[in-house]
Amino acid sequence: MAAYGLYTHIASNKFRSMLLLAGLFLLIYVLVYAGALVAEVMIDSGRTVDYYLTRASRDLVSAFPWATIAAAAWIVIAYFFHQRMIDAVTGGESVTRQRQPRLCNLLENLCISRGIPMPKLKVMDSLALNAFATGLNRSQYAITVTTGLLKALNDKEIEAVLGHELTHIKNGDVQLMVIAVIIAGVVGFFGELFFRLFTNLSWNSSGGGGGWSSSSSRSSSSSSDRDSKGSGGGAIIVIIIAVALIVLAWLLSQVVKLALSRSREFLADAGSVELTKNPDAMISALRKIENRGELPDATSAVMELCVDNPREGFADLFATHPSVKSRVDALVKYAGGHDPGPLALPDETESQDVPSAAGDQPPPATHGPWSDTPPAQPNNPPPLPGTTPRQGPFGPLQGPLQGPWGPRR
Fold first, then answer.
1. Which domains, ranges and CATH numbers included, belong to the chain?
2. What's the average model confidence in pLDDT over 222-238?
3. Catalytic residues
4. Which end of the chain has fewer surrounding CB within 10 Å, N or C?
């Protein structure tokens, strides 16, 4: 599907995202098939590879409705309770205009200018600079920002970040990402379940015969000629196939989830510029958020919804967001913005100005007449010849005693 402008790019991205989401849903049945392979080996460990593959295919057909119902139930539960789960993890709290008039006014102005229903506003107490949008329908949409973001960014930059999240909501990115996280969670859950099951089986396996302890009683009646053919050889191959399918399903679920997230951040940045008409505000906001968005208590699923996710895997393969530099370069190229480069926050600048070494300390204040150090004596001239020093209240007086008409002899 060719794309020639912003809106056609959005439509094309939605079409590709739906295909990726359908593929992500199919991974659940891959896991069911892998589980069927393991179950068949547990029932009888002395069969051939073809036998296990055929039996697992039949088991998949039988389990297809139940797997679909279980996945649908998981999605329904997450549909109604995902916001509560996210709030429980992040500590986000709903705010009113009385508590956050600045934030509410900025969001309301954006929504009114474009005729967008105003989502709920939530604030989480964190020094990190980040924000994210959640919700699967109009009554659930919410934008959560951190207190660190409100403190570090000015009004135009906060408006740009809010425009970024509103674009995610308007383009339907939030729904797709939440569903993708839910389905990927199903894949990860069952993948871990099967992996633990396989680990337990491997520890309980009999050392000499190669059969599984759970199936030893059932396979004891097997004929000796089947054992002579290398009993357990086919079971080991099938277990390896099942483990490979589980690992492949998990990796593909992560790749699909990352593809959905990375491709949408550029469009959300462009949508923010369209809403605010200020590319420089979006660029400076990204530069301030850069490497300062880590939410320590948040799960990976929550970080994937944020404006920026600093968590990266090896060789940037599993980074859920494109780099800030690539996003800024796109805004400079296509929106005409100006890149100021990496920006330091005011608090960071002040901490650099505070002297740390002893030599940088300012000179000590001059002592007064009541301090421990006596005041410095004036540099009086030496006494004149033929005169003797005279005592004063603070020590000897240097020089002749002065009178109103000159020195006294």
1. 7-89+175-203+232-259 (no CATH), 92-173+262-335 (3.30.2010.10)
2. 58
3. 165
4. C
